[in-house]
Design brief:
Largest sheet: 4 strands, antiparallel
Number of helices: 12
Order of helices and strands: HHHEHHHEEHHHEEHHEH
Strand content: 5-15%
Shape: rod-shaped
Distance between the termini: 53 Å
């Protein structure tokens, strides 16, 4: 009987402890109300101090980038049945798009891009990023650094800034470049291949402009990469084509000259010589014709290698700001204040009293 009744005692004691804790909080409810009231004021100050931000989202659906059956059909028509233009899986696949977006070379293409904020004069993107508003605490924390930078500029001999050197960026250029990269993000759905690009700026027009430019530059970047090898191949076949063309024209001219010079001769020697020159001309023509076919296929490969991006959701100027979410900030601050005050009333005060008593005893 004792073994059956003993396990129920801790549950009853726990229930009593919870009631005591709730009663303790109820007695000090005015303190909790005051703390939450102060938290509401602090939350409103924080929410209205954070500048508004606008996000523009563009959705792309890129093709796989593999060659279609069009070139295979053309190769068969030209008598090149075993000719294959497919070089295997492309090294630049859609999973690398987020890394491309935040890379230094890609961000440098946007660094000096002109943007026009609403009702303002055009200026480079890096200067606009530098002049974006910050919360008052960010300005306060950055004040010592600005003061030091101002003092150091007085002793600097540089009057004008040198041109941007991608190989060696200054601290200010690096900071602006990082701010540009942080304003962009990309998410790729590996199953469907859908790529979602998001650009966040404090100006709605600038956000839409940058998002549209990011999509265009990303398309150009991927197109240049995928067509680079095809263009090199096309240049190679064109070089061979011109060489074989000159050889064919030379062989054709030699045969024509021989026929004109030996029109009235019927010797066996002239006959053999004529057949040899004719065979050389025919062989040169066959090689020349094959090079022409290869060149046409190489030119077709350039067009086949160009990726096609279907823009599912284009860039548009947003109407509503995406941040800050004032309601969530307010709820979060009040939530923290409530639990902070409750923890102090239930546990903090007792611990503080014990520390004070221990200090007095030691003294």
């Amino acid at each position: 009987m004792e073994s059956q009744t003993q396990p129920s005692l801790p549950a009853e004691e726990q229930e009593i402890d919870l009631l005591e804790l709730a009663g303790k909080l109820w007695k000090r409810r005015k303190t909790i109300y005051k703390t939450c009231g102060v938290a509401v004021i602090v939350g409103l100050i924080i929410a209205f101090s954070i500048p508004k931000e606008y996000s523009v989202t563009v959705t792309l659906s890129p093709e796989s980038g593999k060659s279609s059956s069009g070139l295979a059909g053309a190769a068969a028509m030209l008598g090149l049945g075993n000719f294959s233009m497919d070089a295997g899986e492309d090294a630049l696949n859609i999973t690398l798009f987020p890394d491309i977006l935040v890379s230094d070379p890609f961000a440098l293409e946007l660094y000096a891009m002109p943007v026009t904020p609403d009702e303002e004069e055009p200026l480079p993107l890096n200067e606009y990023i530098e002049n974006e508003r910050q919360p008052w605490w960010g300005w306060t924390l950055g004040l010592p650094g600005k003061a030091i930078g101002g003092i150091m500029s007085l002793f600097s001999d540089e009057e004008e800034e040198v041109a941007l050197d991608p190989f060696r960026l200054t601290r200010e250029e690096t900071r602006r470049l990082e701010a540009i990269k942080e304003s962009m993000s990309a998410v790729v759905d590996k199953k469907t291949g859908i790529t979602t690009i998001t650009v966040t700026m404090q100006d709605a027009v600038v956000a839409a402009t940058v998002a549209d430019s990011v999509v265009t530059k990303l398309q150009n970047y991927v197109t240049a990469y995928r067509t680079k090898k095809a263009i090199e191949d096309c240049d190679y076949w064109e070089k061979l084509y011109k060489e074989r063309q000159q050889e064919y024209y030379a062989a054709q001219q030699r045969y024509a000259d021989y026929v004109d010079e030996n029109k009235g001769l019927y010797t066996q020697r002239s006959k053999v010589e004529g057949e040899r020159l004719q065979n050389e001309m025919n062989l040169a023509y066959q090689v020349y014709n094959q090079m022409a076919q290869q060149l046409q296929l190489a030119r077709g490969k350039i067009q086949e290698a160009k990726p096609v991006f279907a823009i599912v959701n284009p860039a548009t100027v947003p109407v509503k700001a995406s941040a800050p979410r004032k309601a969530l900030i307010l709820i979060g601050v009040v939530f923290l204040a409530f639990f902070g005050a409750s923890g102090w009333i239930l546990f903090g005060e007792d611990v503080w009293k014990e520390l004070k008593e221990a200090t007095k005893k030691n003294d």
